[in-house]
């Protein structure tokens, strides 16, 4: 996914964080690239390093369409939840696929719907790559 990196910063209590903008919102998440990265456009892979538990950190979305926004002490990712052929959960997030680890099986009727994930910003990582 192509994002606009606004800045990279480190606070004593956190890992390196990137303030990013996407066509469907912006937020700050863990940055796994060059700590001296300059503002600009970067292709990144998104990862979520937290098990997804329906009703705890995953819920039906309030709206439709991809979205990312800060949500208090977490980041809210909205995307379409799906399963791969081998049963792995993925979030289609604006055309990017984010693999998810599930704490429990998903409830009936959830696959293929818009969902919101509520994840601590330090547990969402961006890995920049070059095409």
Rg from Cα? 14 Å
Q: Briefly note the structural class of the backbone.
A: mainly beta
Q: Span between N and C termini?
A: 11 Å
pLDDT < 50 runs, ≥5 residues: none
Largest sheet: 6 strands, antiparallel
Count of DSSP helices?
A: 0
Number of strands: 11
Please estimate the helix content: under 10%
What string, H for helix and E for strand, traces the elements in order? EEEEEEEEEEE
The best one-word shape is globular
Strand content: over 45%
Mean model confidence by pLDDT = 95
What would you say about this model in short?
The chain is mostly beta strands and 131 residues long. The protein has no helices and 11 strands.
How would you sum up this structure, described in words?
This protein is mainly β and 131 residues long. Helices cover 0% and strands 53% of the residues. It contains no helices and 11 strands. It has strands at residues 2-9, 17-22, 25-31, 40-48, 58-60, 67-71, 74-83, 89-93, 96-100, 114-119, 124-129. Strands 5, 6, 7, 8, 9 and 10 form a 6-stranded antiparallel beta sheet that branches. The termini are close together. The model has no long low-confidence stretch (mean pLDDT 95).
